[in-house]
Amino acid sequence: MQEEIPGTKKRIRADAARNEDAVLEAAKTVFATSGVDAPVREIAKTAGVGVGTLYRRFPKRSDLVVAVFKREVDACAADAKTLAKDHPPGEALSRWLRRYCQFIVTKKGLASALHSGDPAFDALPDYFRSNFEPALQNLLSAAAKAGEARSDIDAYDLLRAIGNLASAGSTSGGKAGDDPEHHEGMQHTYRMLDLMIDGLRYGKSG
Amino acid sequence: MQEEIPGTKKRIRADAARNEDAVLEAAKTVFATSGVDAPVREIAKTAGVGVGTLYRRFPKRSDLVVAVFKREVDACAADAKTLAKDHPPGEALSRWLRRYCQFIVTKKGLASALHSGDPAFDALPDYFRSNFEPALQNLLSAAAKAGEARSDIDAYDLLRAIGNLASAGSTSGGKAGDDPEHHEGMQHTYRMLDLMIDGLRYGKSG
DNA sequence: TGATAAACGGAACATTGTTCCGTATTTGGA
DNA sequence: TCCAAATACGGAACAATGTTCCGTTTATCA
């Protein structure tokens, strides 16, 4: 979260840094497994840490939720750059859109928390957009310039469209289980996504 | 809630009936004042009743929320009939739409509960629509027949439109306070509503 | 290596939903 | 009118959870 800023008084203790990371990682796992409403204690235990430690870094439960969310937004946005480096533009675009779709699907539970009215989450939508829109815009532009995708699609529109697709296709809640209906819904979602991607890359417009 | 059905074994005890009503009334008040997340104890105390009494009638907190919601839907829908009896068709229509708008505004907190994924609330949207759509349809038809409103508007569309208007204009949460911004938003909402009503009654179409 | 600041862990506290049960009230019949 | 059974009542007690507190442990640095 916060780097070594020159002006900062003291270094962060090694164990503290290690634990902060462990907590974030545990929270990510637990949120995915048991939903965003999972008890703080469960996260602390998974991280192999006492609740006190967790609360020192994240004074409110919502702070932890926000931190995990931002961290995953960062990771997903960062993947855009990686994919752009490792693949031809059209392919990078396709892959990232699938990656993004997966992000949305796994954040379903969180999404409902966002609209819960808790002011703690007010900043998240902006964070979401300000990271994803440029990330996608770059992929889109590169693909368009290479003639590997149409150029008349707005990044934000696409983000929203896929977001809607994905939320419509997943059962509400945010747990992870092996619910078969859930899997069918997912398959359907990914099929629709592929349709959009194909349209984007090979559609009649240029 | 449940009437005297001939097949029923025993009569409901008088104090029980009285208390059920007191609880519903108290819940309505408390939800309006402190939001739908208000503690059960506060509702019980307001009703002048122990929590045990409350829980016998409403085994889950959500049961109480649902009951209050339905009761207010009933009340609002019933007002449509009353207004139709006491006013000329166009006027009845106007008045009821304002009444409905007020209903929506005060149920903002509840609305977010609806989309919380809790299956306890799954039946509410249907209840909402199946009561309000016919109620409005009647007013609309009567007004149209009397030449006091245009006839090309769908009842459900109108319900949704006003619903959106009202939710957009109110600050999230569902509390009641004297927040001045909230009041401004409300004024704006009602101004927009009046615009729609005027369009409905005096617009160019017949 | 030892002093000190920083961090740790988890018991303890506060709030809330829910259950339990001894007590009080209503009801229907004698 | 009065009694016994049925019913309902109230609120203490329990469980789950977020959050705070503080005695103990550990990392850092000279």
Into which percent range does the helicity of residues of chain A fall? Answer: over 70%
Mean pLDDT across the residues of chain A is 88
How would you spell out the order of helices and strands of chain A?
A: HHHHHHHHH
Tally the helices of chain A: what do you get? 9
CATH fold category name of the largest domain in chain A: Tetracycline Repressor, domain 2
Number of self-contained structural domains of chain A: 2
Tell me the β content of chain A. under 5%
Number of E-type strands of chain A: 0
- Supply the CATH class of the largest domain in chain A: Mainly Alpha
Q: Assembly type of the shown chains?
A: homodimer
Identify low-pLDDT runs of chain A: 1-8
Q: Which structural category fits the helices and strands of chain A? A: mainly alpha
GO molecular function, one term (chains A, B): transcription cis-regulatory region binding
Protein name (chains A, B): TetR family transcriptional regulator
Keywords (chains A, B): DNA-binding, Transcription, Transcription regulation
Domain HTH tetR-type (chains A, B): 17-76
